[in-house]
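# nightly structure sweep
# worker-07 picked up a monomer target from the shared queue
# config: single-sequence mode, recycle default, output format = structure tokens
# input follows
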Amino acid sequence: MIDRKLQALAGCAAAAGLALAMALPAAAQTGAAAPVAGAVRLGVAVAEMDVVAKGWSAKKSVLGHNVVNDEGKKIASVEDLIVAPDQKVSFAILDVGGFLGMGERRVAVPVEQLKPGPKGSFLLPGATKDALKQLPHFVYAKAH
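# output follows
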């Protein structure tokens, strides 16, 4: 189930990237001014609506959900998903530990390692909270 959801998310990211890549060079070549709101089609075309309607929400289906170990104990929660430059969902950013915002630790785990778990959670086979805390701390890249 997670594989299907992550593939759908990657497909949406790819479509958005393709649309942006196609729009920017055309505007640059014509020397046209920036688009004016209402002058450019925004949103989803009728043909694309079926894909959107059958899709899923990362916010509702993945983000914030618990990650459990083989014993069913909570060891982390999914905080974010990273879409790589090749437009594939490649890493899940997990929040390990912490209490009331103190001592939080974010780590990156390849999405292939996550499996569907009980009650909407994700299983990380062979993992422990202590092992996750030993992974390098994940820090978001700074915007240029």
